[in-house]
């Protein structure tokens, strides 16, 4: 006779440790029928409906948000999470710079079987669709730009005390803390990039159809600006390779064969200018807000842009083109 609680805890830890292989068309299942039946029993009674708001609320303490399952970090690398994540904001946003903010969060876990007697467990399924643990022992700083959808509100009850964990509970916490590197990496990559940013006038990260590229513009108005070695996904703007003095009229050009248009980015004093060539049906958004451009018969020009992530959509492309100005 097996211990169903023990079996459930072991199965949960295996899932969290290994995640889901999204690259393969086939999935190899090592769980037996008893594992599957038990997991089905855990979730079959839940009637989860994701809540969405037409207006994105301001980030505030005690809010629950989903997290994007992938993002371009500040070093231009595409990061993927092993599974979907919900987090509870335990602070209000704070500025890293005038265009970048962060909050402190605690991840939420649906695996209440792993809760210790001191863990804060919410049994009210109406909040997010299922009972959950607030992982107060897994507090993380994250950039607000990787938050995705507002879900609801939950007020945390703070309680500190020593506790004794089972082997399975300790393993569960180790796995969850390890998986949460996906969250705090958004901060560490920002810090790393800020250390390098002084050697560039500006840079652009581009993500389209699983392809990521970072293009750098060297310091402007300098004869023979310092050029450093770059990673495989990085390159210098074409203007930097002409051995001429780079000025604010020079641009970073995004010109991919998969795209039916070109994107030019220039940096002026206090702003970025993004140009789409030729004029096509296009939508440029930042944080869910539409940017308004000016156009003629040949191009669309967006003035006054700030640092940050922008999404370009068009009926001419099946996927979003994501661009970070930095």
Please summarize the sheet with the most strands: 8 strands, antiparallel
Task: Write down the oligomeric state.
Answer: single chain
Number of strands: 22
Question: What is the chain-wise order of helices and strands?
Answer: HHEEEEEEEEEEHHEEEEEEEEEEEE
Helix proportion range: 10-25%
Unreliable runs = none
Using the alpha-carbon principal axes, give the shape: elongated
User: What's the average pLDDT?
Assistant: 86
What is the percentage of strand-forming residues? 25-35%
Query: Taking Cα atoms only, what radius of gyration do you get, to the nearest Å?
Result: 23 Å
Terminal CA distance reads 59 Å
Structural class call reads alpha+beta
By DSSP (H or I, 4+ residues per run), the number of helices equals: 4
Could you explain the architecture of this structure?
The structure is a single chain. This protein is an alpha+beta fold and 326 residues long. 17% of the residues lie in helices and 33% in strands. The strands form four sheets. Strands 1, 4, 5, 6, 7, 8, 9 and 10 form an eight-stranded antiparallel β-sheet that branches. Strands 13-12-11-22-21-17-18 form a seven-stranded mixed β-sheet, with no helix packed on it. It has a five-stranded antiparallel β-sheet with strand order 14-15-16-20-19, with no helix packed on it. The longest helix has 16 residues. The radius of gyration is 23 Å and the shape is elongated.
Q: What does the secondary structure layout of this molecule look like, with pairings?
A:
Elements: H1 4-18, H2 33-43, E1 63-67, E2 70-72, E3 78-80, E4 85-89, E5 94-97, E6 100-109, E7 120-122, E8 132-134, E9 140-143, E10 147-153, H3 167-179, H4 181-196, E11 200-208, E12 211-218, E13 234-236, E14 252-254, E15 262-268, E16 271-277, E17 283-286, E18 289-290, E19 294-295, E20 300-305, E21 308-313, E22 321-325
